Amino acid sequence: xxxxxxxxxxxxxxxxxxxxxxxxxxxxxxxxxxxxxxxxxxxxxxxxxxxxxxxxxxxxxxxxxxxxxxxxxxxxxxxxxxxxxxxxxxxxxxxxxxxxxxxxxxxxxxxxxxxxxxxxxxxxxxxxxxxxxxxxxxxxxxxxxxxxxxxxxxxxxxxxxxxxxxxxxxxxxxxxxxxxxxxxxx
Length: 186
Known about the structure:
Rossmann fold, 4 helices, seven-stranded mixed beta sheet, alpha/beta, four-stranded antiparallel beta sheet, globular
């Protein structure tokens, strides 16, 4: 790996950590000249040959990631990361790893590719660690029922999944809902 790639990965990872620590806040990924999309930069810093990845609704992306990151393509129930394409529902995924009581951190991370993110009063309401009182997050391009699905997957905290929402354009935006966040009604 070259030094420039390492610097890009570190900058991108710092933004991801900030977003996980402040659920519902929207962050912009760093700008990098010559990069096609935010999703490639984003996933390039997270995936390697030890990471099991399942892709739902974006078959071309699955093959591209396997070639360029060395990640392993696996069934959803075995995946460390599940990537859900724009306006695609995860309802068809019968089993998602939510961890175990011994290892709750082994639950999957679901990456939703969405059209837009904003902190808006009419969005979903979040509370919990990292949030002062509450925060509202509006997500455009998320399939109907996905927020209910996240509530269901995270109902037995500390078991559950972490969710990352990514606008996959150059200099995309991200927002996160970790399993520790409470998702209210909007």
